[in-house]
Amino acid sequence: MHPILQELSNIGIIPVIRIDNPSDTLPMINALNKGGINCAEITFRSEHAKQAISDISKTYPEILVGAGTVLTIQQAQEAIEAGAKFIISPGLNEEVVKWCIDHDVLIIPGISTASEIEKAMTLGLDTVKFFPAESSGGAKRIKDLSAPYTKMHFIPTGGINQNNMHDYLSLPCVDAIGGSFMLPQELIDSKNWDGIEAKAKEAITSLLNYRLIHIGINTNSKDDASKYATLLSTCFGFKLYEKPKSTFAGEGFELLNAPGPGDHGHIAIYTPYPERAIYQLAKLGINVLEDTITRNKKTSKINFAYLDLDIAGFKFHLINPDVKM
């Protein structure tokens, strides 16, 4: 995967921004960044797009800024000169695509049909924008289109919000989603940047959807694990599940047959997207322990990983049991 696409995939959400007031650009981007969204698509639906991209690139070089609604080669040139790292277009304009490819610029053109996907593939592309997403059939349409085109990846945009974004992001062929739902116009008009930051945090929290899934407790032997699990079952009626390395009492308690990571045990946190969780946690100084990662053999998606986080003798790991080994 192209490194810029990998970064966009790790973030998961691409804010689609029209700049109507140039003075809003930097405080808006700062608010999004503080909220956990360190990328932006600045659309050429405004005369201020080029200047906004330039301002962002110079002030916040760590922000992955791209240009959207690019319709012509001239706009693509202006965007790249201003500092855009990628180009997104609403349709598949072969001249713009070829110019971007010739100049080693990442281009994500818009499509909504199978014939357009085939044209994109002929041009050598493996990632397209599915637009307008909701009115073109939504996540189901992408799933249907991806069946014959297994190598194609999608970034859907149009009508996507916090309530339906998982319909799209749960599809293996979807790298990220685009939208403006974290940028309510009333907050922009009132210059409520704290409100924008809160909306961005809310979007990332909804994206990662963390849940406590179980607590692992270290014991010294299989007999001890079975004994303590049975006690929990007797007291609280939890069903027992015997595993190769532990016994579960219900879904919430795992009694390990031997001491594992953590002096006392571990705490398992569910997230549907471990890669994105790892990316966001790294911003907080919490890193993944690479040698603990396990992946789905078909998709290579992470389904399990320990973190270098220990609280009161309990190590933390991420898990997505829906992503099978």
Q: Any key phrases for this structure?
A:
325 residues; alpha/beta; TIM Barrel; 2,3-Dihydroxybiphenyl 1,2-Dioxygenase, domain 1; 8-stranded mixed β-sheet; 4-stranded parallel β-sheet; 17 strands; elongated; Aldolase_TIM; schiff base; 2-dehydro-3-deoxy-phosphogluconate aldolase; EC 4.1.2.14; Aldlse_KDPG_KHG
Quickly describe the structure.
This protein has helices spanning 3-11, 25-34, 49-59, 73-82, 94-102, 114-122, 138-146, 165-169, 185-189, 193-208, 222-236, 274-283, and strands spanning 13-17, 39-43, 64-68, 86-88, 106-108, 110-111, 127-130, 153-156, 177-179, 211-218, 240-242, 246-249, 253-256, 265-270, 294-295, 302-311, 314-319.
Itemize the secondary structure elements and their pairings.
Blueprint: H1 3-11, E1 13-17, H2 25-34, E2 39-43, H3 49-59, E3 64-68, H4 73-82, E4 86-88, H5 94-102, E5 106-108, E6 110-111, H6 114-122, E7 127-130, H7 138-146, E8 153-156, H8 165-169, E9 177-179, H9 185-189, H10 193-208, E10 211-218, H11 222-236, E11 240-242, E12 246-249, E13 253-256, E14 265-270, H12 274-283, E15 294-295, E16 302-311, E17 314-319
Parallel strand pairs: 1-2, 1-9, 2-3, 4-5, 6-7, 7-8, 10-13, 14-17
Antiparallel strand pairs: 10-14, 11-12, 12-13, 15-16, 16-17
Helix pairs in contact: 2-10, 3-4
